[in-house]
Design brief:
By secondary structure, the protein is α+β, with helices and mostly antiparallel strands. The chain is built from six helices and 13 strands. The protein has a four-stranded antiparallel beta sheet, sandwiched between helices. A three-stranded antiparallel beta sheet has the order 11-12-13. Strands 1-2 form a two-stranded antiparallel ribbon. The longest helix is centred in the middle third of the chain and has 18 residues. The mean pLDDT is 91.
């Protein structure tokens, strides 16, 4: 039985925290049981991928105005169940009491690989069955739609981009949870820390990111 330390770290750009199970703490760590070759190779979609898709779309539809959308999965990593023989290595201790964490945690070397193995299959359905231009970055799926192409979302009682609604319906069918306030869209949207304008074909750092960068460079230089 292993009981690894847990702590919370701030989530960038929000007032919330990530719960982290530290699988790298101590001499005999859980992460040391996992070789890097076994979990390497995860490739996240990025701004370059989104830009290429926007460029292709605008080339064929130069008069269309676009909006961006971003959908967020709740408790992403923790949705994945772990093997029972690994679960006994994930004992959470609080005082004199212990609990078994049955699910994938934020802090393991294999956590991202496990999550993306599942979400890559979901994204395959989105792209090749629903025929939606969509991208994936950890727990965020994002894409674009033509302005005005909206659809009523019954659960949230409001209109959202049609492609986003189709994605959320698929998540509901698969049992993937999501919360209303994390599903956003607009003509300009923050994607992976950058402000993206699909109509001007412009990507720039947000003011907050810019200030953080200047502060970091200043502190490093002195």
């Amino acid at each position: 039985m292993y009981s690894m330390p847990i702590h919370a770290v701030p989530k960038p750009g929000t007032g919330n925290f990530h719960l982290v199970t530290d699988h790298s703490a101590g001499q005999y760590t859980l992460n040391n049981m996992i070789t890097r070759d076994d979990v390497s190779g995860v490739t996240l979609d990025n701004i370059h991928d989104l830009g290429n898709a926007l460029h292709l779309y605008q080339h064929h539809n130069p008069t269309h105005s676009l909006i961006l959308w971003k959908a967020d999965v709740s408790e992403a990593y923790h949705l994945m169940p772990m093997h029972p023989l690994w679960q006994i290595k994930q004992i959470v201790s609080v005082g004199s009491q212990q609990w078994v964490d049955h699910c994938n945690v934020f802090g393991g070397h294999a956590s991202q690989c496990i999550w993306h193995a599942f979400m890559s299959l979901v994204l395959w359905i989105v792209i090749f069955k629903l025929l939606i231009f969509a991208f994936l970055y950890v727990d965020d799926s994002f894409g674009f739609s033509q302005e005005g192409d909206l659809l009523w979302h019954e659960k949230y009682q409001k209109t959202l981009p049609q492609n986003m609604v189709k994605l959320l319906h698929l998540w509901d069918e698969l049992g993937i949870p999501h919360e209303e306030h994390k599903q956003i869209y607009g003509p300009i949207l923050p994607i992976i820390g950058f402000e993206v304008d699909p109509n001007l074909m412009q990507v720039q750092m947000s003011d907050e990111s810019y200030e953080h960068l200047i502060t970091f460079i200043s502190e490093f230089a002195h």
